[in-house]
């Protein structure tokens, strides 16, 4: 009988803090309270204390109407679902709250939450020493389940927002019988549940979503996301990308980009940026191979209507393309007379070369990681996202056959696996190639006339649930390591290591042992960089189901369709747009920050202030003043503006208010004191300025990056070490040659030789792969180049351009 590993759940400090922030707020910070504090004035005071403790800004009291709502930020991969399920248990035990509704935006997330509700039921009951919840997934065909909300049982309902956000939904219909002659929704409204919103930016970002949530008549709403859009709700707790990265609670990020150079042998063209209006027409910039001396190099070419790319580049590869017939700003493309298009992000002409190079790199990385981790009991998984099923599997009247990328994968895998004897140590070495990969796609069910078939999808249809069910069903199976000689591990899922899936199903994947992610999609695909990395951020688990913490190997590699610099810059833009990071300080940055001010009596506020719960500070309030009464003080717009001006004057921020990594790394204790003194001169209380410096330092602190040049020399004891010999075999071949020749003889051989071109070595086509580590902090995303590898491409089918027109055969020679 097959034995599947089981995940062990770990008590993590930051998850406990997130739960505590909610419970403390709703208890009025009273450890003995057994009822929720919902009276507006009391609740608002409690909220301000929570914000003070967690260094968050106060947004004003509008969050209280029509019902209290709070934000909790949890980075992808840090256990957001675990946090809000633990919060449900804590609220039930502490306040005897029994009715909860979890609202999610999609079927993918619903499938994941349902899986967690099922698997965590006993565990959560044990650790909270309370009764188990009963949960159900709302189904309009089983509407009677809503009657469970009428009693006093501990109930959790899971639903998508689409199930109740329209008047035509079954849940909103009037019934003459049952439900006491009313709407099914009234069963929920009468219970005044605590509502949990998973990914609120997708649930109630629009008016219809907000009205749908309000229709539940919630007692309080808790909003959990890695990307909060609505900032009007107090942030009770924040564990975002920077905090998770710096706390080593997610994998580090690495990107590998491939730059293909075919030296003009391929008609490559790519739209560089969105076309721009120039006068009454549009102008576009494309990247194409242009003749530069005796070579063809990628250059930026400006195109207008009716321009010829051939004439602009002097490259005969583009001669048959004809002239520009359309420049389209709405859909971002340039079309030529032969029907070819230059589009954003699409490396037309070199796409297949790029895919092959990236897939080979992924397979090599995968196998090398397996060698390093298999003895630790960590199974390595790779995810390859496609946007068309036919690229993985083709269905014909004769049955199913492999698509182009399935065939390409098998070809490369076999070659790489047998390219080095070290891979013979892999447990999976003798597993047939067709068993190491499989597809997870939506399926049409089998009928008498046809078998089950994969289908293209948008990710949120009824048929997509077949894929999500398979993903959840196989989760632990995919984490189980296949070991030859152990029949209990001889399963399809255990042998499977390379997973092909539809890009629209990305939200369904949260497997912790994904170390490699590649996306092969059309330029129109809207996958963001955050979405690309999000499926691989979780800390991996071993065969005991325990998290395996190891910064040197906990790295997710993204095989990007751009350079590592472009990936890092693009990721930073996405983080800035989402408000995840901020490197700019303006006059309102500190407004709303809550600090505590000491006072001698109720009417006379003193000068001493502090921010509670600071993890590190160079300044502290004298102990003898600690007995003075304290009141909370909210930083005013005027105080915030003054402090922002001081940061500019002391060169902490530049003229645009931007904070740089270099400045933060050189921020000494003396420099901080200089800021405080300058602020005091401008009228800020010294202790208030000190608290603001503490906040600023913690908010924008930059982690120390390991210097890869700091290397230690070690003495090799075993000179027969196989790893050393393998390394030496690779590097020993890189030899410099020195050639001596007479100039006159060389010229004579070239001019008068029987075949003057026979011995000319043309520059080879290359794929240059650059690997870089992505570093993240509260202010920016940076990149650190790790390695560069140049692969020489071979393609005998490609014509070679004649760089020497004197041959009399303009354009080509063979």
From TrEMBL:
Q: What EC number(s) are associated with this protein in UniProt? A: 3.1.21.5
Instruction: Give the SUPFAM superfamilies listed for this entry.
Output: P-loop containing nucleoside triphosphate hydrolases
Protein name in UniProt? Type III restriction enzyme, res subunit
The answer to keyword Coiled coil applying to this record is: no
Q: Which UniProt keywords apply?
A: Hydrolase
Domain Helicase ATP-binding: residue ranges: 61-246
Protein's organism: Lactobacillus amylolyticus DSM 11664
Give an example GO molecular function: DNA binding
Q: Does the keyword Hydrolase apply?
A: yes
């Amino acid at each position: 009988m097959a034995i599947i590993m089981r995940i062990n759940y770990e008590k993590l400090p930051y998850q406990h803090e997130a739960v505590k922030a909610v419970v403390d707020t709703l208890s009025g910070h009273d450890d003995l309270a057994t009822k929720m504090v919902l009276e507006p004035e009391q609740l608002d005071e409690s909220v301000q204390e929570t914000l003070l403790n967690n260094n968050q800004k106060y947004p004003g009291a509008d969050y209280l109407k029509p019902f209290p709502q709070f934000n909790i930020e949890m980075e992808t991969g840090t256990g957001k679902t675990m946090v809000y399920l633990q919060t449900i248990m804590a609220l039930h035990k502490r306040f005897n709250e029994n009715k909860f509704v979890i609202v999610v935006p999609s079927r993918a997330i619903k499938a994941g939450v349902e899986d967690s509700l099922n698997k965590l039921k006993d565990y959560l009951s044990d650790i909270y020493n309370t009764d188990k919840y009963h949960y159900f997934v709302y189904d309009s065909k089983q509407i009677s389940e809503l009657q469970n909300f009428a009693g006093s049982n501990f109930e959790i309902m899971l639903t998508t927002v689409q199930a109740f956000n329209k008047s035509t939904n079954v849940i909103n219909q009037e019934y003459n019988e049952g439900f006491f002659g009313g709407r099914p929704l009234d069963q929920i409204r009468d219970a005044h549940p605590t509502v949990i919103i998973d990914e609120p930016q997708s649930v109630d970002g629009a008016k219809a979503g907000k009205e749908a949530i309000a229709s539940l008549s919630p007692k309080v709403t808790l909003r959990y996301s890695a990307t909060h859009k609505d900032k009007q709700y107090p942030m009770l707790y924040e564990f975002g990308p920077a905090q998770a990265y710096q706390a080593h609670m997610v994998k580090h990020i690495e990107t590998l980009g491939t730059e293909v150079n075919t030296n003009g042998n391929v008609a490559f063209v790519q739209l560089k940026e969105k076309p721009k209006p120039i006068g009454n027409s549009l102008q576009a910039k494309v990247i194409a191979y242009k003749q530069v001396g005796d070579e063809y190099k990628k250059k930026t070419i400006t195109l207008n209507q009716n321009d010829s790319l051939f004439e602009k580049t002097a490259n005969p590869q583009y001669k048959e393309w004809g002239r520009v017939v359309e420049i389209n700003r709405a859909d971002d493309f340039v079309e030529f007379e032969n029907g070819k298009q230059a589009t954003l992000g699409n490396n037309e002409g070199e796409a297949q070369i790029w895919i092959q190079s990236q897939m080979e790199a992924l397979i090599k990385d995968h196998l090398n990681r397996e060698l390093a981790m298999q003895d630790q009991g960590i199974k390595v998984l790779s995810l390859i996202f496609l946007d068309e099923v036919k690229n993985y599997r083709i269905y014909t009247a004769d049955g199913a056959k492999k698509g182009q990328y399935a065939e390409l994968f098998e070809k490369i895998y076999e070659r790489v696996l047998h390219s080095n004897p070290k891979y013979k140590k892999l447990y999976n070495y003798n597993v047939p190639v067709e068993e190491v990969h499989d597809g997870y796609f939506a399926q049409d069910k089998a009928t008498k006339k046809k078998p089950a078939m994969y289908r293209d999808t948008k990710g949120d249809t009824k048929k997509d649930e077949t894929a999500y069910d398979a993903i959840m069903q196989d989760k632990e199976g995919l984490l189980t390591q296949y070991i030859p000689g152990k029949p209990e591990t001889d399963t399809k899922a255990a042998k499977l290591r390379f997973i092909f899936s539809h890009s629209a199903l990305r939200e369904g994947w949260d497997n912790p042992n994904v170390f490699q992610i590649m996306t092969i999609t059309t330029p129109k695909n809207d996958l963001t960089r955050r979405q690309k990395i999000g499926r691989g951020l979780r800390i991996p688990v071993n065969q005991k189901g325990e998290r395996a913490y190891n910064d040197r190997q906990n790295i997710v590699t993204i095989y990007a369709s751009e350079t590592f610099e472009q990936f890092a810059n693009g990721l930073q833009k996405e983080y800035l747009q989402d408000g995840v990071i901020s490197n700019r300080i303006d006059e309102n940055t500190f407004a709303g920050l809550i600090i505590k001010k000491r006072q001698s009596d109720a009417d006379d506020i003193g000068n001493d202030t502090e921010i509670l719960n600071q993890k590190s500070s160079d300044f502290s309030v004298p102990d003898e003043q600690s007995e003075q009464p304290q009141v909370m003080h909210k930083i005013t717009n005027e105080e915030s503006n003054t402090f922002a001006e001081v940061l500019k004057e002391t060169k902490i921020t530049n003229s645009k208010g931007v904070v740089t990594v270099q400045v933060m790394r050189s921020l000494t204790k003396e420099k901080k004191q200089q800021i405080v003194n300058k602020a005091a001169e401008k009228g800020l209380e010294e202790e208030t300025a000190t608290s603001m410096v503490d906040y600023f330092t913690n908010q924008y602190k930059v982690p120390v990056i390991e210097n890869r040049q700091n290397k230690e020399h070690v003495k090799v004891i075993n000179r027969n070490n196989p790893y050393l010999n393998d390394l030496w075999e690779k590097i020993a071949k890189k030899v410099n040659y020195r050639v001596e020749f007479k100039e006159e003889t060389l010229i004579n051989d070239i001019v008068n030789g029987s075949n003057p071109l026979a011995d000319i070595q043309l520059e080879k086509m290359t794929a240059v792969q650059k690997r870089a580590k992505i570093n993240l902090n509260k202010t920016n995303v940076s990149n650190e180049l790790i390695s560069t590898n140049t692969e020489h491409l071979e393609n005998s089918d490609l014509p070679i351009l004649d760089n020497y027109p004197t041959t009399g055969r303009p354009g080509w020679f063979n």
